[in-house]
Request: fold
Amino acid sequence: MAQNRRAPARPALAHAPFVLFVAIVLALVGLGRRAEAAVETRLLRIDPRAGVNEGTPVLTSVVELVQFSSLSEVVSNAGCGVLKGDALLACISTAVEKPGAIAKPFPFPDAQARLMVRVDGGENLATFAGKTAWGQSKKDPLVGTAWLIALDASSMMGARYQDAREVANQFIGSMGPNDIAKLIIFDDKLNAYRANTEWVTAKEKSKLIAVLAANPGPSPSSGSGRPFGGQVKGIVKAFGDLGNSGSIQNIPMMQAMVLLSNGAGREDGGSVAATAEVMKQFFNKGRFPEDNNAAPKTPLPVISIYFPNARGFVNDKLSLNDFQYMQDIANPEIGGFFDIIQAGQSVEKARTIVKLVNDRFDKLWLVKWKLSCLAPTVEQSFTLAFDNTKPPIKPDQTFKDVPIGVNPTQWPLDLNLAQTKAEADANPVYPGGTFRVYGNFCWGGEKSRAEAYFVPAGTRPDPNVNKNDPKVASQAMQTLIAQNMRGGAVEASDTFVLFQVPEDEKILEGNGDAMVTRLVVYDNRAKRASGYDEKTVLTLKAQKKPFNVLLIAGIGGGVVVVILLIVVIARGGGGGGGGKKGRGAAPPPAPVVAAPPYGGGGYGGPPAGGGYGAPPYGGGAPPGGGYGGGGYGAAPPAGPLA
Reply:
């Protein structure tokens, strides 16, 4: 028997493709199985647009929590490792199409969730603000997917083009209300496409269907070679068109690529299977184009559907390379998918694939966070982690030193509007007074960083002004300072700031109980402000400056002093040179004090005890003040004129 095993039935070279195929299958099925897959978290998007548009520091993230199983585990558990040829392909397809086989969704434990952003070398914790499942959030205009559908129409597709065309048709037909899509039909020419549509909305998907109808068959061959890998990378550049002038401006949060091909690359080093893994890392990195360091990080799920040609798969080394390339370019770890459609299966398989992909997307979590602090640079670093969960959840730190699509100076300050307005309702703001603004601030108690700019009554923002222009903002602040509309901080902490109100009634808008004041809080170091358009500007209850009761009392006391002085003079009889009646009258009793100079009588100074102000030469006013020590009644209340 040993001798028979050593004697090959065929030449060794005839078995070489099969040996290669077996090696691929062994790599695919893996060497071991885990009893239960680990729970992993994936940050797929960090989107600041809602916060910037609404004037609140609310960040939207798209998060996937799944128990992820690799393709090798799924195929191994299905027993595909003992099969070969078309039977193996069918087994793989059946295994991956089992719901939850690749990614089993996991609940989002919001009480244990921690999103942290790195600011000045430390981690700042964001506040959880709510969550919804992606599938339940489609009324949000940003909850949608930009689908880039790449359909292979090369001559090597042959009759498989019709099957691939049907899958493209089904993906187009399943577009959600906020989805957009672009169709590229390519053959064997690099960057020269059979069809390249514009991005269209779900309401315009008939345009894409029309393009499919206008391209019923594959292209003739234009040569022996085909740079398939380069074609795929070039097609992805279409995502760079999103948001261009004249194109769709409301870009959905998610993006995905659907690659429909037999994976046949010929006479091209970039199309060997080993390069597919490099391409996948390019998709996972999510930078399009990759050399644009200012572009936001947008990881790209790739749905790769393999359409094998019926030509002896087991012994065709080129087909093995095509299969492995299409398998490896998919990234199921971030929402991508790999499947195989053999001849005659397109309609049924297409429905299954579209449903599996959309179901997984629908189970993503749309999580909102209130983010008080942000690094003062374009690049941001985030960590999403979970404390004390069972089973443990692996954290995600893939968003490191990456732009998220926002200028940090445009990120609104985190004001506690409810508490701030409640205090203003109880104690209306008035010229010359003080008021508190509550929130979560990043100035660390440095009151010099906090400023308040009041909007003069009757002012309305110019809708045509460029709010992002630093010169416009600087000019506006200079104008308000010149109009005495700036309020400095008296006291500041991480949770509140006490502002001085300008002594000017121009801060008041309206009348009576409807009177308000409008203002913008500004951090002059971070260059961040609270909402500053007509919708988001901070509006607080206000009133005219109240009468100063102490001042009025002081004025009243001064009047009493004058009256009493007149009485004293009258009762004093006009001094020593007065008439007989005056000299004969008995003087009123006086306090026992040292005799004033030059005698006494009615010609002397004021009664002892003060009452006309502080003694000469800088001495303080005597205790009691006013006339409190004499016999003319109680002292008047203290006031500016006392």
User: Anything to note?
Assistant: The chain has three domains: 2-403, 413-460+470-541, 553-576+624-642. The first strand starts at residue 39 and ends at 47. Confidence is low (pLDDT under 50) at residues 1-23, 25-35, 574-586, 590-642. The CA atoms of residues 150 and 184 lie 5 Å apart.
